[in-house]
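User: I'm putting together notes for a lab meeting next week and I want to include a structural view of one of the chains we've been expressing. I don't have a solved structure, so I'd like a prediction I can at least talk through. The sequence is below, exactly as it appears in our construct file.
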Amino acid sequence: FVVFIADDVSWNDYGCYGNPAARTPNIDRLAADGIRFDRAYLTASSCSPSRSSIITGRYPHNNGKAAELHRPISGHLPWFPELLKQSGYYTALSGKHHMTSTKPSGGEAPRPTAFDHVDTGKAKGDTSGSANWLSVTQDRPKDKPFFFWFASYDAHRGWDADGQWKKSEYGPMHQPADVIVPPFLSDDAKTRQDLASYYNEVTRFDHRIGVVVDELRRQGVLEDTLIYVLADNGRPFPRAKTRLHDSGMKTALVAHWPRGIKWRGASDQLVSVIDLAPTVLSIAGCDLPNTMQGVSMKPLFSDASSSIREYAFSEHNWHDYEAFGRGVRYGNYLLVFNQRPYLAWQGPADSVRSDSHQQLRAVRDAGKLNKAQA
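Assistant: Thanks for the context. Below is the predicted structure for the 374-residue chain, given as structure tokens.
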């Protein structure tokens, strides 16, 4: 198993999801040979609450303090890589971690370690979080099945890919004239450059996925490896990251597993990221702990018409600013309930500081906001 998780990338910023400007050939190939989920939803559009939810298979508010940014998961809750490790898997995390458990108190035993190997994914001149993915894949013990949690720092602000760009590997940098400006942003030079720099990080993430896929193919194990590609939350721009709307809470989700997936194409079945943990564990033959609230996606791998859930639930709690919101996705409907309507819902601090946010303020001050921008 390999989980590739991007940092702050919206669902429609990949070529296979209809963005002609975003250069993601490796993810596009995985989608073409696997399943592209068109209705996949996060439980939180906020880094650590989202990752903690994925790894426990639980909604953020049921993870204890981890419902909010930079807070630990309740120590009694198992992480699914920990269960794989106990079942004989070699487990490795390379890149952004952002997940901890509360420390034991009294006579409690400490939480068992989930990973045999952990590194930051960074190297000299490369802060992407994906710098060591190839070496981890090459150096794995070949007598064990493996689980890799490959977590990029791309595309989190600030835009370090611009200064670390390797044209020979990533191709030409994205140009401001070519980006797709969402209707809720201002279409101006500064916003376009902001988006171009963001696209560069998406392309670097995609390139490193291709490097790992090539290595798995060289080792002769690609056919037997279930690969997921997703992100922890939406792009770090206004009306995206931390938002309960689709621009923040919907994620690209690609599943690739040649021997295990019986059909190829786009799926319109509703799925939640808390479904990943029970899916991996059930395929690995592990018992599912009763703490997990997700459901296995295995039926969707065999039959495109299978359905595993009617609703997808999401939430927004504290992330730089006070917030308390809930969202329910059902069919073509989204119900958003904001329990702090007297507070601004403006996005995280890094987005608020961005040129894109400041340009929106300038348009507002000039009295020229369109409906989407307002």
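A couple of points you could mention at the meeting. The first strand starts at residue 2 and ends at 6. DSSP finds eleven helices and 13 strands in the chain.

User: Perfect, that's what I needed.
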